[in-house]
Design a protein that fits this description.
This protein is an alpha/beta fold. It contains 8 helices and 5 strands. Helix 3 links the parallel strand 2 and strand 3.
Length: 150
């Protein structure tokens, strides 16, 4: 387990059809999760806090800005890990926001778990507890302004 002196900042997000699955995963891993700082969007954060008693920094719901709030925290270097149980079989009205969140996580080189198997590997990795920090890219703001959006 990570030292209390070096907690990870972990974002937990789930689409509606995956919330119960995330809740079961978080319950199983609640001992480990308690040693870290947790963030979540809307209903997911409420579920984690009230059903499992985990302290959670809650943002807006994903469709109304929560995904973008998490993306900003990733870009600022606050969030270390993103656990996002997304539903690949259900169309999402806020799909552009979801894609933007996943893109920002890839740009800033943070680990992303999309399902239980990946989340299990990430949370049980010795790298989570040994002080490992992924290398953040050096991004020239001027170069970003010249990049095409599509």
């Amino acid at each position: 387990m990570t030292s209390v002196d070096d907690p990870r900042h972990i974002a937990l997000v789930a689409h509606d059809n995956k919330k119960a699955e995330l809740l079961r995963w978080a319950e199983f891993n609640s001992g480990t999760l308690r040693a870290h700082v947790l963030y979540a969007t809307g209903t997911t954060g409420t579920m984690l806090e009230y059903e499992l008693g985990l302290p959670v920094i809650r943002f807006l719901g994903g469709p109304v800005g929560g995904d973008q709030q998490l993306g900003a925290k990733i870009a600022e270097g606050t969030i270390d890990v993103l656990v996002f149980f997304w539903d690949p079989l259900e169309p999402q009205p806020h799909d552009p926001d979801v894609k933007a969140l996943l893109r920002i996580a890839a740009v800033w080189n943070i680990p992303v778990a999309y399902n239980v198997a990946t989340a299990d590997l990430v949370i049980s990795s010795p790298l989570l507890a040994n002080g490992y920090r992924p290398i953040r890219p050096e991004i020239d703001p001027g170069a970003l302004e010249k990049m095409p959006l599509s």
